[in-house]
UniProtKB/TrEMBL annotation:
Binds 2 manganese ions per subunit. Keywords: Aminopeptidase, Cytoplasm, Hydrolase, Manganese, Metal-binding, Protease. It comes from the Bacteria. One of its GO terms (molecular function) is manganese ion binding. CDD domains: Peptidase_M17. This is Probable cytosol aminopeptidase. Mn(2+) 2 binds at K264, D269, D287, E348. The lineage of its organism: Bacteria, Pseudomonadati, Pseudomonadota, Alphaproteobacteria, Rhodospirillales. Signal peptide: none annotated.
Amino acid sequence: MKFSFVSDKVPSTGAIVATVTEGGQLSTTAKQFDDKIGGALSRAISNSTFKGKKGELLEILAPGGVENSRIILAGLGNPNELKATDFENLGGQLYKELSAKGEKAVCICTDDVKVHGSEEDNAGALIAYGALLRSYRFDTYKTTGKNDNKNSLEEFSVFSTDSKSIEDAYEKLSKVAEGVFFTRQLVSEPPNELYPATFADQAKELEALGVKVTVLNESDITKLGMNALYAVGMGSERESKVVIMEWNGASEKSAEKPLAFVGKGVTFDTGGISLKPAAGMEDMKFDMGGAGTVFGLMKALAGRKAKVNVVGACGLVENMPSANAQRPGDIVKSYSGKTIEVLNTDAEGRLVLADVLSYTQEKYNPRLVIDLATLTGAMIIALGNDIAGIFSNNDTLCEQLSTAGLSVDERVWRLPMADCYDKLLDSDAADMKNIGGRAAGSITAAQFLQRFIDKDRPWVHIDIAGVAWSTKEKAIAAKGATGFGVRLLDRFVADNYED
């Protein structure tokens, strides 16, 4: 889909979208079109339930007096309460509606409406951004139906008196969208196509943006002593990998340590010897969602030339049962030197993260660490499928993430951590067990990870088990991989840590 930003005149063909605030108050452009078509817009409003509320659309098909295929009135609601996400959602809604109707071109007339409580006042850029996010489809393996009406929209233009600033704002946002798409594509790929080696190969796409990529093979992993990670992948014929991505965008004068983002990348999780039930196991292709988010975040930051130093580190494994697989009762020595009694081979993601967390801290001494993982089914029971859980040793980081999450509508909620939960991991045979029992499963998983975080190192664990994949459509995403976390962490970085 081609995006353009114009200020000279509104196109005379295709669909036109004009805004209406709550109470049916027409925007300047809407009034102009109302005059052109003999008051048809006003009559349509008076003869309908349309009130200009947020999310409402009113369509006049093939209106007389103009050549445009249709005019759509888009309700904004209270103009004093408009947030950036409202405009993004409107863009996604318009893309879906018009594509489903076979429309090929649309022009959005923003009339320079403002975003409440935001430095980003370019509503037109946000609408285009929302449409771009909604346009993603995973159809790589479809041989039929690719060109149906669901993807008909070819041109999306924004009309405003200040088209240049809107275009500049959109250009920056589009780089974040590319990161989101990267994550969605990775998470959507089938496990016979995306496994540790092919996943690691995807990092080559980041090298073109200036990201330094290092891939550790199994020989490197075992030589370094990443035995916890290695043990998870022993049952698979696919060789495990660790991918390290470095973006150094801070000014040369900056001596700031990097931010570190660590992702769990289990490309398929059978549960290993502790085999999962067959029903729903196909969903375990997205157990690499944490690593997918880190890859997408690195693409977003590098794409928009973020002025910050960042390290992204991901452990990539496949958890399979075989004669060589890890067994319940095994004891492994982690990279940190701490020993782990493996009581359940389906609690494998924390073993992967343990070694990558320790390695990343020792090698890069980051100013903070954030890890992401589709770690526990208990997280879905606790918070459902719209909010991610966060666990941390640092109040400031949690507040920053919560604020960023609200601004991009990728919300997070902090859950408690305490010694009473940590003690559940104590083992009679090793330094710790890899599970703490059924109760408080998401918390004990976080407590396990904290045992591999250096003292006084600011750290947050984000459990995205419930939000990495969606079975329902959202305004800016179809069903399937959501790309959750890319926009959240990009905003977190932009608001708090860039030069």
